[in-house]
Design goal:
This protein is mainly α and 349 residues long. The protein has two domains: 13-211, Orthogonal Bundle (Farnesyl Diphosphate Synthase), CATH 1.10.600; 213-349, Orthogonal Bundle (Farnesyl Diphosphate Synthase). It has helices at 16-30, 36-45, 64-74, 84-105, 116-120, 122-141, 149-176, 184-194, 196-209, 214-241, 244-247, 253-256, 262-268, 273-283, 290-302, 305-325, 331-346, and strands spanning 8-9, 14-15, 109-110, 113-114. The chain has a two-stranded antiparallel sheet with strand order 1-2. The chain has a two-stranded antiparallel sheet with strand order 3-4. A hairpin with a 4-residue loop joins β1 (8-9) and β2 (14-15). 38% of the residues are buried.
Length: 349
Amino acid sequence: MKCPIVILFKKRGILINELTKLIDTDIRNQFQLYEKELYFPIQYALGIKNLDNSETKNRPGKSIRPLICILIYTAASIDPTKFIETSLSLEYIHNYSLIHDDIQDNDEFRHNKPTIWKIWGKDKALIIGNMLNNIAYIQMTNGEKILSKKQITDISQVLNQATLEMIEGQYLDIHFETKKTISEKEYLNMISKKTGALLQASVIIGSIIGNYNYKDVSILKKFSESLGYLFQITDDVLGIWGDSSKTGKPVGSDIINKKKSLPIIHCKNTLNAKDLILFNKIYSADKIKHSDVQIILNLLDKTSTQKYTQSLAMTYYKSCIELLNSTSLNHKKTIHLKLLLEKLVSREK
């Protein structure tokens, strides 16, 4: 299901892809101010420099976290370009987490290029990630001239809490690797932290900038929780059934990597005893063979897991829409957020 998305901000006539370009440009401009040699690995990690030090044409990734933040405060009738720099704190924390994730998971490639640790080593990669995390907070305080002291304090608290929860989620994810049985409730709790925390922060920071009333902030917090589940569950679907020509990964890539994503957990918890023995035998092997990937795919099909997982993603999508509709914002104020949600639930990579 494809969803062409064209979001028009009437005040400036800015399309969402143009807003993404503005985010890209701001990131590039900011890192012109840093020492070139020392900060080159960060520029590489952010996708603004190639390994040969040349400029990239486009950054990989979707910049979804700053985009959501911007869309939230724009719904409060604020110029979408006014707080782009503040929103970039979210992008930097996200990328710092990816650098550390790649070390912990021993992933050698991200966005079809070698990961930071693979090039500079794990010791330097840890430091590079920490530097980027600190830059995020410096970036946030750069908004002091246009944000109140209370707003800066509130945003800082939200970022700190989100970062802590994100790290907690990563710990749980690693812990699950050696845990034989994981319930769906446990998994959803983990992704609410690892993936959801920073997405929730994107919404809450946007509402702080937009000076939303208490009732709307409460609703938007619930919206952000559903958004986190929607985002990760859609990722889980793509990790197994995604079109390899779109995702850049083979079909069943999460199976090959023996990830315990929602489809895997649902399937395991639904299989009969005989099939469960087969499943566990394959997943306990040091390396999963191509023929075994097909067996797991067949078991997923047998338990209607794809249908179940996609249905759950749609449940959270509908929850997001309903929650937006229950705010004091009218339809015109939320249309761009709703279109972005539609893009998220129908994305192919």
